[in-house]
Here is the input.
Amino acid sequence: MTQTKANIALLLGDPAGIGPELISKLLSEEITNKANIVVIGEKQILESGNNVTGNSHQLEIVEDFDQIDFNKSNRFLLDISKGKNHKYKIAEPSKESGESVLEALDLALNLAKEKKIDAINFAPMNKTSLKLGGNTHSDELQLMAEKLDVKSFCCEFNVIDNFWTARVTSHIPLKEVAQHITKENILKPIKLINEVMELNGLKNPRIAVQALNPHAEFGTEEKDEIIPAIEEAKKLGFNTDGPLPCDTSFVVAYKNKNHDCMVGMYHDALQSGLKAFGFDRGVTVQGGLTVPVTTTAHGSAFAIAGKNEANLAPILNSFKIALSMAENKKKLS
Here is the structure.
């Protein structure tokens, strides 16, 4: 039986940032022909990106997903303009920008729930614009989990060079981290990162687990919670190792290629290493959702918006992961 192409939604990101020009560049990449592409957003926002890059694209323009026929074309723009033609000011967050982003995201998530979209790849959003536009969640992952009716554990994965990371805690004060370091909480991201990496095509990934305390010894969390979690994960069949001291964990796991991924206890223990080794290539995967969702690890970069200086690599890498996950998920369905 012939495997049909995956349907991937591309979202333009904050119209005041580098998102529109990144999607303009991405659409010129040959790999996008391996999927059915649905760009979701306002027509003039995509055109603004094309004006920056000098690119042009043959996209069939529709105003409703049911007007799409992938037998006739594999590239569509689902235009949500509805007659408005708002001019977004470059490099400034705004209520209007946030509303446009949230409307496109809401539509993409609804299409995913209806099994019409197999993956979502979005250009960087701006948290200030999202808040001004009505978002009440601390991050995009919690917003998407609510929209998709996901009640189970979710975790943001960050990726460079196909080395993946997950964390036990994320956007909380450092003084609160230790109280969340429990065996049960550590097992959740171990199980999830194993599941998602296998969906991305890597069977039995080698999972490193970071320590919490310096040298993995100046405290009790390693002995009381982290080591028991690692041992329990091994009993469950997961290929886990650790705890690795944070200050050398990226050298051991990533640089020396001893592991395929790493679970850390808190945000900066992972992000500092990732950004030092590959900030210009980083990808974020929204883990635990019912549909693959990927984006860049960087933000909307207002400082270079409209200058055609945006680096294609992160959005291209994020598209490749979305495509791989969507294709593998279709094979399993």
Notes: The first helix runs from residue 19 to 26. The chain has two domains: 7-152+283-332, 162-275. Residues 7-152+283-332 form a domain with the Isopropylmalate Dehydrogenase fold (CATH 3.40.718.10). The mean pLDDT is 95.
